[in-house]
TrEMBL record:
<feature type="region of interest" description="Disordered">
    <location>
        <begin position="147"/>
        <end position="167"/>
    </location>
</feature>
<dbReference type="GO" id="GO:0004170">
    <property type="term" value="F:dUTP diphosphatase activity"/>
</dbReference>
<dbReference type="Pfam" id="PF00692">
    <property type="entry name" value="dUTPase"/>
</dbReference>
<dbReference type="InterPro" id="IPR036157">
    <property type="entry name" value="dUTPase-like_sf"/>
</dbReference>
<dbReference type="GO" id="GO:0046081">
    <property type="term" value="P:dUTP catabolic process"/>
</dbReference>
<dbReference type="InterPro" id="IPR033704">
    <property type="entry name" value="dUTPase_trimeric"/>
</dbReference>
<comment type="similarity">
    <text>Belongs to the dUTPase family.</text>
</comment>
<dbReference type="InterPro" id="IPR008181">
    <property type="entry name" value="dUTPase"/>
</dbReference>
<keyword id="KW-0378">Hydrolase</keyword>
<keyword id="KW-0546">Nucleotide metabolism</keyword>
<feature type="compositionally biased region" description="Gly residues">
    <location>
        <begin position="149"/>
        <end position="167"/>
    </location>
</feature>
<dbReference type="InterPro" id="IPR029054">
    <property type="entry name" value="dUTPase-like"/>
</dbReference>
<feature type="domain" description="dUTPase-like">
    <location>
        <begin position="31"/>
        <end position="166"/>
    </location>
</feature>
<dbReference type="GO" id="GO:0006226">
    <property type="term" value="P:dUMP biosynthetic process"/>
</dbReference>
<protein>
    <recommendedName>
        <fullName>dUTP diphosphatase</fullName>
        <ecNumber>3.6.1.23</ecNumber>
    </recommendedName>
</protein>
<dbReference type="GO" id="GO:0000287">
    <property type="term" value="F:magnesium ion binding"/>
</dbReference>
């Protein structure tokens, strides 16, 4: 996939990630693209057939993003994150906080959207609206060594429990 003329040259060690378009409207909405040459997140669009209303504190809705991502390199994953403007201004957040797209998942990308507001007006999502973003990142899977003994902290940190550092 072309990065476009406004984006800087990419480092040679980046994997190629496939995109399988499932909704033909995406191309007309400008997908796939980053919003600027320095943007970290790939814009994700609501591939809906009609407007969707998210009532305050109601169950999250799954919104199709209209494509599958084919990462395939186990050293990489995708993170689905909210867009900051709609989250701050309107209360639109992801129902699962952050979505993790594993390298071996090739199914349709769905966005869990939730209206976090305790009351008030519903949030309206329109077809073709940018509602989330995907950031690609490296994955570190260290070797885990199970150590003998229950509890205890060799460093002294954590002996007071969760949030005990006082900061």
């Amino acid at each position: 996939m072309s990065q476009g003329p406004d984006l800087p040259d990419l480092p040679p060690d980046l994997p190629e990630v496939g995109i399988r378009l499932l909704d033909p409207r995406l191309a007309g909405w400008g997908f796939p693209h980053w919003g600027s040459a320095a943007a970290a997140g790939l814009d994700l669009f609501a591939c809906l057939d009609a407007s969707l209303l998210l009532e305050p504190q109601a169950a999250p809705a799954l919104i199709p993003a209209g494509f599958s991502v084919l990462i395939r390199d186990p050293h990489w994953c995708g993170l689905v994150l909210p867009r900051s403007g709609r989250g701050h201004r309107d209360g639109l957040v992801l129902g699962n906080g952050t979505g993790v797209i594993d390298a071996d998942y090739e199914g349709p990308l769905l966005i869990s959207a939730w209206n976090r507001n305790p009351s008030g007006a519903p949030i309206r999502i329109e077809p073709g609206e940018r509602i989330a973003q995907m950031v690609f990142t490296r994955v570190a899977r260290p070797r885990l060594a199970v150590e003998a003994g229950a509890g205890g902290t060799g460093s002294g940190r954590g002996s007071g429990g969760f949030g005990s550092s006082g900061r």
